[in-house]
Write the structure tokens for this entry.
Amino acid sequence: MLLHILAVGDVVGEGGQDILSRRLREIQEREDIHFTVVNGENASRVGITPRQARGILEAGADVITLGNHTWNRLQIADFLDSDGHILRPANYAGRVPGRGFGVFRGPAGVRIGVLNLMGRLELNSNLDSPFQAADRLLRGAPCDVVLVDFHAEATSEKGAMAWYLDGRAQAVWGTHTHVPTADCQLLPKGTGFVTDLGMTGPYRSVLGIRPEHSMNLFLGGLPRRYEEAEGPCKLEACRFTIDTEKKRCVEVRRADLWE
């Protein structure tokens, strides 16, 4: 069968949650989506709460992935242990709550593995290697399709991961930078890849945050708490079409919505 996967870029603040709750099912219907993964690590601007996670799942997400702000809202820790539909990066070092890899049932019984990883270059050098973590978790994994959310700063690290997993994962996408890329591509062994999905939140902003806060920082002002921007929002995402019999991605394209 042809399996349509929707991967949704980082949800930022209340604006991102609002457009997701109002418009996600519309996109799912328009794109004939079978399974949806949403990165939610910025739902509280920095981090996510259990209430926000439940809201994202109720909006239509099958799985929530996270990133470098996972622990900014420590109340999420117990939720990570109790709900298998939210993942944190699998390569966090040490003993931390939750899991970074899960296998979920898709249509016709297809077993969909979702892996959440985080990059180390210019982001967090104290993480375990995401490449080694992928090797360990995917070796013998009981799934028919593998999807990877690689939360990383450097485009080179994201590209290296996609090529490293070519043929072992059917879809690899990058999150974290909040800026969508136009490089949707199919790698030689059947992996669909895009460097970054973008973000879901207010677009009259700097990465979802009020522009004056970023300007203040770059002009040498004192650090201040970031506040979510106001105004119209966008939902940025990509659709991956996977041939489950051949275990290859056959199409990757953007599926964005701007209000």
Notes: The chain has one domain: 2-258. The first strand starts at residue 2 and ends at 8. The chain is about 25% helix and 30% strand. The radius of gyration is 17 Å.
